[in-house]
Design brief:
mainly alpha; Ubiquitin-like (UB roll); Catalytic domain of cyclic nucleotide phosphodiesterase 4b2b; 3 domains; binds ligand PDB; binds zinc ion
């Protein structure tokens, strides 16, 4: 889009414009200063007391993190800073926590009578209650804990969008739709079009309405509209409906959907798949990437099964999330105004439906080795006319796109890891509070970000990306090299953390 070039920011100083109490302010800080310093800077600007909670909204009314990674802007696209809640007291203490705390005091009084001292276990429990109270103070959407509204976590539904106080979810969606439709007639510059085909594309620079236009460009540039008589309006309705069915959660949101689809789009061009697979197979892969996490609740399959949620019940514990994502996708396609497949033959429709079901179900990471081993067996004798071979390759392509964040530049990839850990920690907090088994790599008290990520890269990403690169050697520089650099980056971070810990008195 003209004039929509990404807003970069010099690495040395960051200039942030924002409105506070109706006044335009300008903050300046070094891009490498700590999150605490940045938060203190904005606290001072808002003249906030220590117990005040600050919230920053961007132009589209979405809450953004107050951190050194805050995207630099200009006065005409300023943020809005608000003091949104005076203190924890103004937010009801969740009843479970209240009960737990008073039970604890009773226990302590009783035990002190008997033993004339507070045993270790009571101190431990008191610390846990204190840390949950602290966490409630910082958690952005208090609904996350699932404690402030009875029963909602049973369905493990995501909390409502962190909407700017003045826009409801519906109004926000309408705003995005209007912006999308107005921009969709604009010509995207050749430079953006080319950039869109590379793994270096930076999703953080683009708003959701702009991403919808870029998704439309992907379908257009792969000639899907002419090949399948897709009406532009049906495609716009379809893309907008997909956008509406992703939840506002830290990782499995519409931005993730965009990243996975954009990576798939880039891989299709880089591997020249347009001349090796049919247009139907390409449509299956791109649309599977687009729909692969639809209506993700922010709690994984293990949670669904252990908590016996509606999804686990409905899908008999068999990839409940992936079955749900696929069912939601075809629920959207069933709407006449969104049905991009309406002008296809029954034969083509059946091929596409079958292909999408296989590809979306293949994103269940519990099946990772099953699928990778099949591909490893085929790769040395891979045959692009063999139906079985093509099916496994399509699953591999969707899987690679799905977990490919570390193939992107570090400043694009690292925030994604923070988002994913935030979603994992929300889940493990809820599991602890509900007495469900807690997955170790999701436990905020056990996870070390660098060492978890180095093992993930070493044992999951590199074997997968290496196998695909054997079939498409050009991917070495585009995705394998960046992942090796990421391994270096997190290994150094891991060593530094270990040295730091070692040095501590
Ligand atoms: C996976 C499964 C479900 C959801 F766990 C997300 F701390 C992912 F080590 N996923 N997608 C990308 C990832 C990444 N998991 C990890 N790193 C990624 O870059 C592991 C990491 C969060 C750990 Cl695999
Ligand atoms: Zn995903």
């Amino acid at each position: 889009m003209e004039g929509q070039t990404p807003r970069g920011s010099g690495m040395s100083m960051k200039i942030i414009y924002f409105m506070i109490n109706g006044k335009l302010e300008r903050a300046e800080f070094r891009a490498d200063c700590s999150a605490t310093e940045v938060k203190e800077l904005f606290r001072a600007a808002a003249e906030a007391e220590p117990h005040h909670i600050l919230k920053m909204y961007n132009m589209s009314g979405t809450v953004v993190n107050i951190s050194p990674r805050l995207e630099a802007n200009s006065a005409d696209s300023c943020y809005r800073l608000e003091v949104v809640a005076s203190d924890l007291q103004s937010v009801a203490m969740p009843p479970e926590l209240e009960k737990m705390e008073c039970r604890l005091h009773q226990l302590e009084r009783k035990v002190i009578e008997d033993m004339a001292k507070t045993p270790e276990i009571i101190c431990e429990l008191k610390n846990q209650v204190e840390s949950f109270k602290k966490k409630l103070e910082n958690v952005e959407h208090l609904g996350w804990m699932g404690l402030l509204r009875e029963g909602n976590h049973r369905h493990s539904k995501a909390p409502p969008k962190a909407r700017a106080s003045h826009l409801s979810v519906q109004e926000e969606r309408l705003r995005v739709r209007m912006k999308f439709l107005n921009m969709s007639s604009l010509q995207v510059t050749e430079e953006v079009r080319e950039h869109l085909k590379t793994p270096t594309f930076d999703n953080w620079q683009w708003e959701e309405a702009e991403m919808l236009v870029l998704l439309q460009v992907m379908y257009t540039d792969l000639d899907f509209l002419t090949a399948f008589q897709i009406e532009p309006e049906a495609l716009q309705n379809f893309l907008f409906e997909v956008y509406c069915h992703y939840n506002n959660i830290p990782f499995h949101n519409f931005q993730h959907c965009f990243c996975v689809t954009q990576m798939m789009y880039g891989l299709i061009w880089l591997t020249d798949l347009r001349n090796k697979l049919s247009r139907v197979d390409l449509l299956i892969m791109l649309t599977s990437a687009l729909c692969h996490d639809l209506d993700h609740p922010g709690y994984n399959n293990v949670y669904q099964i252990n908590a016996q949620t509606d999804l686990a019940l409905r899908y008999n514990d068999i990839s409940p999330l992936e079955n749900h994502h696929c069912a939601v996708a075809f629920g959207i396609l069933a709407k006449p105004e969104c049905n991009i497949l309406k002008n296809l033959s029954n034969e083509q429709y059946k091929l596409i439906r079958g292909g999408m079901i296989k590809c979306i179900l293949a994103t269940d990471m519990s099946r990772h080795n099953e699928i990778l081993n099949k591909f490893k067996a085929m790769q040395p004798v891979f045959n692009f006319t063999n139906k079985e071979h093509k099916e496994v390759l399509m699953k591999i392509m969707v899987k690679v796109s799905d977990i490919s964040n570390e193939a992107r530049p570090m400043e694009v990839a690292e925030p994604w890891l923070d988002c994913l850990l935030q979603e994992f920690f929300n889940q493990s907090d809820t599991e602890k509070l509900k007495g469900l088994p807690v997955t170790p790599f999701m436990d905020r008290d056990k996870v070390s970000k660098p060492s978890s990520q180095t093992s993930f890269i070493r044992f999951v990403l590199l074997p997968l990306f290496t196998e695909l690169t054997k079939l498409f050697p050009c991917l070495e520089q585009h995705i394998l090299e960046p992942v090796r650099r990421a391994l270096e980056y997190y290994s150094d971070m891991e060593k530094a953390t270990k040295e730091e810990e070692g040095a501590k008195p």
